[in-house]
Amino acid sequence: MKRGLRQCLLLPLLGALAAGAVHASPPSEKLVCATAPRSAWMPEAKIREAFGDKDYALVKFKISRGNCYEFYAVHKDGSIVEAYFHPVSGEVMRFNRVSASVAAPAYESRSAAQPAAKP
Prior knowledge:
Blueprint: H1 3-19, H2 44-51, E1 56-63, E2 69-75, E3 80-85, E4 92-98, E5 107-111
Antiparallel strand pairs: 1-2, 2-3, 3-4, 4-5
């Protein structure tokens, strides 16, 4: 797919992600990461590094209702990512990735209970 067309298809989705209108995980799947006080949490800069912000165009970073560090981003390959990290340990608690390719739609999801497949 040509770069211009891909960008045109992604712009509305990125806008919806930034506005909070799109949720990759159903609201019924509430994820609780930490009950530790915020003074024990990793600094934001360190968790961004653990997320791999050099490979992503970060759309939104926030603290979820379940006290997780939550990322919404676009990977350099064009796929869209929603990731939740434990704020104390830095462990990946949930990772959802949706391919941006119209020709070959794909969805990858894993949680702390499911380790990532070896590439």
